[in-house]
Amino acid sequence: MAERVTVKIAAKVNLSLNITGRAGGYHLLDSVFASVGMYNTVTAVKRAGKCIDIVFSDTGIDPRFNRARMAADMMSKRYGGLGAKISVVNNIPSGRGLGSSSADAAGVIIALNRLFGLTDDQRQLNEIAASVGSDTPFMLRGGLARVTGRGEKINYFSGRTDKKIVVVSPASEVSTAECFRRFDDREDAGLAADTDAVVAALIRGEDFTPFIGNALYPAAVSLNPDIAEAYKAVASAGGRPVMTGSGSACLGFFDSMPDSFAGRQTFLTDAGVITEDN
Question: How far apart are CA 207 and CA 197, in angstroms?
Fold first, then answer.
């Protein structure tokens, strides 16, 4: 077994997001997830004892509430006390709907499993990931998938697109929990995208952008008006905008990369959609 393991986990974006109901106190979704070229890096090193310490490069992260801590505790509970020091390099902005905390959790699960040679049963790791957060099972593998239920039902598929993507990241965040509360209070329709059409277009390599949408957008904008400004910046540059997750980051899809547009300083440009399974 290795004494040190390093893994990179890609950011997640939602090409479509519908809310289809509730079960057991959780919202149910129907969404197309795709990995994009921004990464958090997780390094795990063995240490004596049965304690796992986690250090983040982003000093603004509270390790008590980050999903990496939850993942480490779940792995120790499942497989016995594990001694490791984990460092996380955060390049995916948090609080933007890009899955940064879920990427940390997935990285911890993968790194600890490789470091200690715990299991070859992917179902066990998926169960732990699902207990940590709804995006985390997808982040274990990444790629392109239709995700339903609480995020635990993942149907990977191969697709392709010639669209260029920019990720618009407003300076301010959106609380996922507050966004869902606002969604419930507003009683907005949960269907904003034609997910069947998005999947079919990606499989055929056709333009999927006429069918994208995010049912959480009105709730998120009511919490953070900067999201609407991001939409305007993408549209004015000739792109098709859609919010990812519960925001605040938005995607802009273009036939070719724009030379310039308002608010460019807020853009993480040319992220690149990963449409092949990792």
Answer: 10
Determine contact, residues 227/217, Cβ cutoff 8 Å: yes
* 252-274 mean pLDDT: 63
pLDDT band at 268 (very low <50, low <70, confident <90, very high): very low
- DSSP 3-state of 89: strand
Alpha-carbon span 220 to 242, nearest angstrom? 12
135 is catalytic: yes
Q: Active-site residue among 12, 30, 104, 226?
A: 12
Question: Which member of 104, 135, 164, 226 is catalytic?
Answer: 135
The pLDDT of residue 278: 40
Residue 234: Cβ-neighbour burial (10 angstroms; 0-12, 13-18, 19+): buried
Give, in order, the Cα–Cα distances in Å from 242 to each of 37, 128, 131, 218, 265: 18, 30, 28, 12, 19
- Residue 79 — pLDDT band, cuts 50, 70, 90? very high
- The pTM of this model reads 0.90
* Residue 196 a catalytic site member: no
